[in-house]
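Let us work through a complete example step by step.
Step 1: write down the sequence.
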Amino acid sequence: MRIVGGEFKGRRFNPPAKNWPTRPTMDYAKEGLYNILANRIDFEETRFLDLFGGTGNHCYEMISRGCTDATYVDKFPGCVRFAKEVSEKLEITDKMRIVHLDVFKFVKTIHEKFDYIFAGPPYGLKNIEDIPTLIISEGLLEPNGFIVLEHNPNVSYEMHPQLRETRNYGKTIFSFFSLEEKE
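Step 2: predict the structure and record it as tokens.
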């Protein structure tokens, strides 16, 4: 895992391989996503939420680019421990809130709004199709905010009313959702 841009560009972190339940976003797909984001958001002004945070990869990337308000959520103790260790090494604990909780419980109990929400659930998650609707219905998005959901080609959101676009990076697909009306 490598940070691809910003202050920490080039820094590498290796999560423990034994029984590791994550699938970090591939560097070339992450580079593509962050090139898109660089043209859409002001990283320094963005409240960011990383659901199914895994290694913490996306929080580090956002903070590396200037984000000062990143929230990481994951239920796996090893992932949470790793994210805490890396945030301490990078000295970003004041910018990264780490929540050890099931994502679905978190989404139903949090009463905050975010500008950008990234969700990278396990590809085999049974209710992966419900995630954008759940986030939107629970009111987690700012009016101009958006969600990016990472998934594989076995899942399609083509008929979802809030889908705005998809970007395909081989077996990694990013689907973008927002509250704004389709043009």
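Step 3: interpret the result. Residues 27-178 form a domain with the Rossmann fold fold (CATH 3.40.50.150).
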